[in-house]
Amino acid sequence: MALLSIAFNLCFVYLPSHLSTTGSIPLARALSGAVLGLLTIAVTAPLLGRLSDRAGRRRLLIVGTMAVGIFAIPGFTLAASSPGGLLVFNVVFGGVLGLLVVTVFVAELFPTAVRATGVAVTYGVATAVFGGMAPLIAVLMANAGAANAVPIYLVAAAVAGTIAALTAPETAFDDLR
Length: 177
Prior knowledge:
Layout: H1 2-21, H2 27-55, H3 57-81, H4 83-98, H5 102-109, H6 115-143, H7 150-167
């Protein structure tokens, strides 16, 4: 959940603001691109969730976390290159984030008696601590003259997410308890 939250906040909160602030892309255009990326997630997430029912959650999580790491640096470079580059980045990254079927994966780790509480605490902490801090960390990096390090931060989160996915059990085919 941490990677999903970090990636979401860096790509759809920090990046439009950063590109606008640096004068690369007007804010309205940057936010419009973000909306298109969010719509892409809305379309791909259910489709990829269905695929995870058949192929397994762990497999999609591994592919998704690796894809975030592989696409982060060239994606941020593409996004900063032009409004069209940002548009392509948002659509591709929206599709990649659709691979992160982490919410259902985490839900299946908890017994039914505490499932909602387990997901709520996990999601809440990951979103507040990791996702909520991501734009702040990115702004601090940019203000320190290291804006190019922001996608490296995302790569580091993706590496941690990939390690977690590789060591996690498959949950898709287990009976719910």
